[in-house]
Amino acid sequence: MKTPIPAEAASALIDGKIKQLGDWRGQTLAKAREIIHKADPEIVEEWKWMGTPVFSHGGIICTGETYKSVVKLTFAKGASLKDPSKLFNSSLDGNVRRAIDIHEGEKIDESALKDLIRAAVALNLDLKAKTKTKAPASNQQTN
User: Fold this and answer.
1) Is the pLDDT at 73 greater than 90, yes or no?
2) Rounded-to-integer distance, Cα 105 and Cα 102, Å
3) Are the beta carbons of 29 and 73 closer than 8 angstroms?
4) 123 CB neighbour count, 10 Å cutoff
5) Range of the domain at 85
6) pLDDT tens-digit map of 80-108
7) CATH number at residue 73
8) What is the three-class DSSP state of 72?
């Protein structure tokens, strides 16, 4: 198993990626990152899969991927989240993930994104709590 990159190093790598992009994609990723941290100050930044920014709290919330024509925020458990503002516009056919593709010139709906981030954190923490309350079969006594 690979040794995880410390959060401080991951944050520095994300800073570097934003700077390296040097265009609208870097600005968009930086803005999304800012909104993510405003929504939940306890978000932990990670660097996974050979260069993907990952935002976590109780598990992965979303990734921040950059492509030639889009910045993509992929929510690990997006299919389980309510999206009344209809931010999800990509990866809609999957059973688990959902994504938001942000194209050049598009404005991020800050309020709606914050709501999605908070809902994703709540889901992760709820699933984590449920996992802890289930006693493993080997610990259960039989009469």
Assistant:
1) yes
2) 8
3) no
4) 19
5) 7-123
6) 999 999 999 999 998 999 999 999 999 99
7) 3.90.1150.200
8) strand
Number of structural domains found in the chain: 1
Report the amino acid identity of residue 99: A
Neighbours of 38 (CB within 10 A): 13
User: Measured between alpha carbons, how far is 3 from 16 in angstroms, rounded to an integer?
Assistant: 21
Cβ neighbours for 115, distance < 8 A, ≥ 6 positions apart = 39, 85
Contact 32, 73 (CB under 8 A): yes
Asked if residue 41 belongs to a domain, the reply is yes
The answer to whether residue 139 is domain-embedded is: no
At residue 113, φ and ψ (nearest 5 deg) are -65, -40
Q: What is the pTM of this model?
A: 0.87
User: Which positions ≥6 away from 133 have C-beta within 8 Å?
Assistant: none
Give the separation between CA 54 and CA 5, rounded to whole angstroms.
Answer: 12
pLDDT tens for 19-35 read 999 999 999 999 999 99
Residue 132 located in a structural domain? no
CA distances (Å), origin 143, targets 129, 140: 28, 10
* Sheet-wide strand order for 60-66: 44-48, 52-56, 60-66, 71-75, 98-102
Q: Is the sign of the CA dihedral 125, 48, 32, 92 positive or negative?
A: negative
